[in-house]
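Researcher: Structure prediction, please.
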Amino acid sequence: MQSKRGSIITAVLLLILAGGFSIRNHRLLRSHMYIEKGLYSVDVRIQKFLQELELIETIINERYVGSDFLVHMKKGRKEKVGVYSIYYDEGYNEGTVHVLIVEDTVLRYLRRVELKVQDEEIQLINKGV
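Model: Predicted structure follows.
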């Protein structure tokens, strides 16, 4: 009788232990899936912004001749292109490096881009996420 009771208790404890492991593994798997979805959505947003940055660049090149846009930005003015507001970042700039802030007015998200003027053509370079 004693051995039967001990084997039942052991079996129950093993089931509890196995259940704990399966719950832990399930939570771990779900957290990895959540992280992967989050990284994927950030990656998609970055790719979309890079495509839109090229569009912004062409629109600005149509409106301004290279250095005129830089002078316009240094005066502290904003430029509106689609859903984006572009303005000069005073704290970042030094000498030959000119950084602009591109603000998505719908999502309220800021990105910094570097402005380069080469051969009277504007080039915008993404500087981070």
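Model: The chain is about 55% helix and 25% strand.
Researcher: Thanks, that helps.
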